[in-house]
Amino acid sequence: PSFMAFFHGTIKAMQQNYCDHDSMFVLLNTPWIFRTAWGVIKKLLTKRQVSKFRILGDTRTKEGRAALLDIVPENLLHTEYGGPVRRLPGFLPLDTKEEVEHWYQSR
Question: Which residue of 43, 59, 83, 85 has the smallest Cβ count within 10 Å?
Fold first, then answer.
């Protein structure tokens, strides 16, 4: 119960202050327990919030990769997902402690 209260409060605060900040959350290779929990979690969200989530299956399968490519162009995919990109500029997590320190000092 305390987790659900925390989760609901966090979602409410994010919606209030950052309602259009994130256009889509793409979750890849999620374990079955998460997909099961999503059935409960999405009942706490508005239809608009739920529409921002895409929960894809295993991206190693033909269907999972096709679903991913419907959302993300192949030239922007990380090498882990079969694309050419090792790291997109501006994306977190940063690779080294020095990059983290530079980011922290410049914000």
Answer: 43
Task: Give me the DSSP letters along 26-59.
Answer: EE-S--HHHHHHHHHHGGGS-HHHHHTEEE---T
Q: Which residues make Cβ contacts (< 8 Å) with residue 82, sequence separation at least 6?
A: 65, 74
For 67, residues 6+ apart whose C-beta sits below 8 A from its C-beta are 54, 56, 57
Q: pLDDT tens for residues 44-69?
A: 888 988 988 888 888 888 998 899 99
Q: How far is CA 62 from the centre of its chain?
A: 21
Contact between residue 29 and residue 59 where contact means Cβ atoms under 8 Å apart: yes
